[in-house]
Write a structure and sequence with these properties.
- With 169 residues, the protein is an alpha+beta fold.
- The chain has two domains: 27-62; 68-168, 2-Layer Sandwich (Alpha-Beta Plaits).
- The chain contains four helices and five strands.
- The strands form two sheets. The protein has a three-stranded mixed sheet, with helices on one face.
- Helix 3 crosses helix 4 (135-154).
- The longest helix has 20 residues, at 135-154.
């Protein structure tokens, strides 16, 4: 982009009273900056956003606020209590779903149910699926992946994985 101080294109006519070949008067700096800023905005409006930026924004939008200290009690054995923050459990399970490739995990809730002798995990998850996929089969793949990841990471059986397909892209 060629920008001249007076906003004229190079080779334009000389203003009245100016000698040919003489430099045109320089406008005040704020006017020059305003002209350059407007030209940059017009140019930037035609460019698509970088894919990484869009992904980071969408990850922030999908993130769920969590109360600090919310914990899932995996084992309540005296002297050997095991807790994991729900936010950490959610990250593990969402990463497992995102690893499938055809689906993105959205909102996720994890709860520990059962008695002290027999604890189980219950997971509620929303997902965004890729268009054209059979959704019942996709939901079963998500359930299987979440159950395996939950049992491996937390050492508890996963009693239920409720999957809601919230969007198709």
């Amino acid at each position: 982009m060629a920008l001249t101080p007076d906003g004229a294109a190079p080779g334009a006519a000389v203003p009245d009273g100016a000698a040919p070949g003489a430099e045109p008067p320089v406008p005040p700096v704020p006017d020059l900056l305003a002209t350059a800023t407007e030209a940059a905005r017009r140019e930037d409006a035609t460019l698509p956003p970088p894919p990484a930026l869009l992904r980071r924004v969408m990850d922030a939008v999908r993130a769920e606020p969590r109360r600090p200290g919310l914990a899932l009690v995996l084992s309540d054995v005296p002297g050997a209590r095991v807790e994991v923050a729900e936010a950490a459990a959610v990250r593990v399970l969402r990463a497992a779903v995102d690893g499938l490739g055809d689906v993105r995990a959205g909102a996720c809730r994890v709860a520990v149910d059962g008695t002290a002798e027999q604890r189980v995990l219950r997971v509620t998850l929303t997902v965004t699926a890729r268009a054209g996929l059979p959704l019942p089969e996709l939901a079963e793949r998500v359930r299987a992946r979440v159950a395996a990841a939950g049992e491996e990471a937390f050492g508890l059986p996963v009693a239920a994985v409720d999957v809601t397909v919230a969007d198709v892209t």
